[in-house]
# Entry
Amino acid sequence: MASLKEEVEEKKKLIATLRNKPWRMKRRLKLLKECQAFVEEFEGALGKGKGRKLYAYKVMMAKKMIKFNRDFDNFKTACIPWERKIKEVESHFGSSVASYFIFLRWMYGLNLVLFAFMFGLVVLPEVMMGLPYGSIPRKTVPRAEQDRAMDISVLLDFGGYCKYSILFYGFYNDERTIGVLQFRLPLSYLLVGVGIFGYSLMVVIRTMARNSDEGGDGGDDGQFTFAFKMFTSWDYLIGNPETADNKYASITTSFKESIVDEQENQKDENIHLRRFLRVLANFLILCSLGGSGFLIYFVVKRSQEFANLDQDDLSWFEKNEVEFVMSLLGLVCPPLFETIAELEEYHPRIALKWQLGRIFALFLGNLYTFLFALFDEVNAKLEKEKSIRNATIWGLNEYYSNYSSYHNTTDIPPPDIHPADVIRGPCWETAVGIEFVKLTVSDIQVTYMTILIGDFLRAMIVRFLNYCWCWDLEAGFPSYGEFDISGNVLGLIFNQGMIWMGAFYAPGLVGLNVLRLLTSMYYQCWAVMSCNVPHERVFKASKSNNFYMGLLLLVLFLSLLPVVYTIMTLPPSFDCGPFSGREQMYNVVMETIENDLPAFIGNIFTYATNPGLILPAVLLMVLAIYYLNATSKNYQNANLELKKKMQMARDEEKNRRNNKENTNQVMQDLEDLLPNRSLLPPAAAEEKPPPVREKGSKSPKVAKRPGAAANGKGINIQKDVSLAAPNPKAAVTHPPGPRGPSGNARGPPPGPARGRGRGTPPSRR
Amino acid sequence: MGTTASQLRKDLLSEYQELTFLTKQEIILAHKRFSELLSKEDRNIPTPRVPMEKVLSLPELKSNPFRKRICHVFSTSDMKDGSLTFEDFLDLLSAFSDSATLEIKSHYAFRIFDFDDDGTLDGGDLEKLVNCLTGETDDTRLTTEEMRQLISNILEESDIDKDGTVNLSEFQHVISRSPDFVRSVQM
# Structure
């Protein structure tokens, strides 16, 4: 009964793994039908006796589950958007360009989820259950700005009606609960703001783990260069003859390069000159990085001065100076770095890594300088706010005292001022949000313009002017552009970093980004197919995947820092946003714990935040990391040992098959040590079986005698010896003639002794 | 279009789903493409075969340097002419799909690279392989000297038991260390 069940399980397992077997379909189909018939026949039999109905029910549910899973998988694959488009790009340009679009699609998915969070938990409740526009001061355009609030130029600058809308932080009210559902908006705002980072972190790390799993351990890079080039360089996704030709050429070039590399010894012609040049190049680049940082700082300071002047006097250029300068730097510096890097004369792959690192440093430096400059602005606004706040409180007190002295009551109604006329503080959070949104928008504009001019216009010029130009434009100087993968990916990563930083202050930013990614996908797919040509040096896409994910993770942490810092230290504005009136933003959480949750949870939190508890927890985590590190090192060592063992086993088997001498160094040394080689029988191969073999010995393996017949006879006779009486032992000594003398010396030669192992004991009886 | 003879039976469809790495839509699409390749008379015979030239006209295979070998490897025809039935075609698509395992891909890749079908990759096979990869024209081919050097380097790297050929387990060992084999062997 049990064995039958086991068989059924085995057949089921076989069915599940059938697709992994490299057999012909006919054979697999036959086997599948057999197994299925077997399972059906005996599954019914197993269900006899008690619990038959339950068993049959379980089986049916299992089958339905499998079918459901399969249908769900099918559905999931059908839901992935843009699959055809990406495959088309892949067949024309190879897998490395397509990897950018796959990355873009992944980002789109991430942003969609973030948008769903922000929209569903913050924007929607405020819109549906909160107070409408114009009811309270923070939601109304101040009287002074009202006549210009609808101007397109003001709107494009995100002032006017845009500023006092759901797009920005300042619109949200600070009531503890709103609407029928008692929805706690301030708490939700804070939690969503932090939750965005948490979710992004989780998704990025999960993708990194999955990528590193598929990619193998990435070790031993230089070990198999040629074999890899040979067996894995062809990209089977290529379906376009032009790309195929390019691929052929690049494969040939890479073969020739590797051959030459292998043959030649690199002679360092002049180490000192090269080192000097490299130091010079790095110095120049540091200078340019510093220069760009200073430029941004200067421009942001100037924009603060401009903000104090009357807006009408400023030109468009002066108003958008900051964003313009930042985008310009992002365009100009990378080619500059590339030109300077020519001095260094690195191998192309290393040069690419340096280039990426420098561009990364550039973007990071720019972003952080921008943040610091912004920070100064925030502090200035906080100062201004104090005075306005004092003025407002003073005004309110005046009103109360006048009213009570005039009407002689203590029950004073709130002052009857139109919301648009109330004195308003400079809402620094909304100002920061506006800055980020403007930066993102200008980044989008610059990217699209670059593609339009750099690729499309260039392609049109090359195509149409070629008819009437002196030299061949297509083959010579401008020619068609190639798709700059690393530049685009870095741009995408930094764009995401800006979104992460700005999402807390401008909830509408995430929605804006979703739109941008959507249009980007279509726009760039079109641009790539119509204006670009496949790369001449076709690059591998694989290992870079985790590199870009690593960059994304770094950017995530770096954008987390400013937001968390502001949440923890800066006081919120007193009259705008969901945290107005509180000392710190995170006080919302404290209040909720005190007022809304049962008392003991509050106690738990108080205990949990005690430093005496936190320090040991941190210590425990450090110890856990150390332990995991040590275990992973041990596993790596065990791996190496296993590899060595495999190698040795292969060597042994090879020797056995090919009848050669022992190539294992240890065994060779052992052979040399043996006292008298003449003692060994001519079938010297007998000596080679290592001691291990003796224990599990099988006598037929013994003799590699010249004649198979003699071999057979020897063995047969030995068998006779072991089975029959000791007498025939006399006959045994004869055929193994040369062995005779050694038979007496029972010592060193393991072979004969082993062969005789069965024979000897009976003789001694 | 879509006569009853050229539709896939439901039970067969579910069995194919069980046995290959393809989803239901992919199998149906494959059946449609396969039927388009058949000539009119062939459509009504029970297990139709598509001759090799027609298969090679598929866009995915047209630019592939190994297209003829692929057809030969997946073909079950007795005449060794590289013609494919629908089941062979499904085998092909399943081996090249992106959910196929490394073992399946490496197994089939080995057979594709084994030009003389002797179960090992010897010097002749490797030479033909390199010539396929470097293209048809004369100026992209390698010289004899370079070829010799290349082949000796490859054998040095991958031939573990030093018998002058690369057998299946050595090949799989090399491939398992490669990070982008799985991604590149796809259609």
Summary: Chain B has eleven helices and no strands. Chain B touches chain A through 66 residues (CB under 8 Å).
